[in-house]
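chain below, 344 aa
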Amino acid sequence: MIRNRQLNPPLRQHEAALSPSPRMGGKRSLRLRVGRIVAGVVAGVSLLTLVAPVVAETIAVLPPLFGGRAAKELADLGLAYEEVAFPTTDGLTLRGWFIPAARSDAPAIVYAPATGHDQRSGVSLAPAFHWAGYHLLLFSYRGHARSDGRPGAFTYGDAESRDVDAAVRYLYETRGIDRIGVVGHSAGAVSAILSAARNPHLGAVVAVAPFNCVAEIWQSNRPALVPAFLLDWTLSLAEKLRGFDRADVCPVEVVDRIAPRPLLVIHGTADQRISETQVRRLYGAAREPKALWLVEGASHSGIRSPVLDDLAPQVIAFLDGALREGRAPASGLAQVPSGRFKVQ
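prediction:
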């Protein structure tokens, strides 16, 4: 017992020397907590960086709501129209409005909407085309309005160009119309070009603010804080989830196949999404007959409305040459001064 009393104090002193002081333990605990907070913040920022582009892209391609009074604007114009439906080659049913011309043997125009738009986006063009003696088909892509398909599965022109094919086939086979043109804006312009490149029943194309390739436009619109690889990963994810290949959404590679049918490209010089340089490259890849109208000061959205609405008489004259008169419309580059339009 005496030995134990002599040995225990030194042992306790040694153990005390090896154990951290309360102050040291507090500092270590604080460092651990701070480390966990920093790691959580880094992980959260990393996750947000990965998720944000995916969420933003998903929202951007969602179709607008289509209520029961969607046709009110068209009805207010006093134009007779029919609710129509027609199939795609992969088993879906597309729906839209057919506005007949006074003459049954008149040519027809298909309107191809931009991303996030449906058949209503072509209504503002209806009076001009109707009174010029054209049938007009306004339809919605798959997954939009009352057309079959999964909402949010937009493919930037791949599946949508096949929907344009279906619309043209409906006019040609069901309606017996053999003179057909297409007018499209943005991704609708891309869909129009892709369709016309393989579809001989399209006699003329009006492409408003088209892009060259989906991969190019994604990178040229990349926010400064988003790394290029992350945007490419987002596009790859969209390809896998929606079943398309970016290589198939590259109108600059096929636009030359439209000739000898005429092509009109309309573009705004203030377009912040698609540069004038890009559009000039697309125009350069096309073959005659072709025309490029550059509207000074018009933005990507403004080139559609109000500019295209205001340019409707000139666009109709272009289409008349191709679809009514059997002649090639005037080709070349035209600068359209901004003073003619309320560009935005």
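The longest strand covers residues 93-99. The longest helix spans residues 22-61.
thats it, cya
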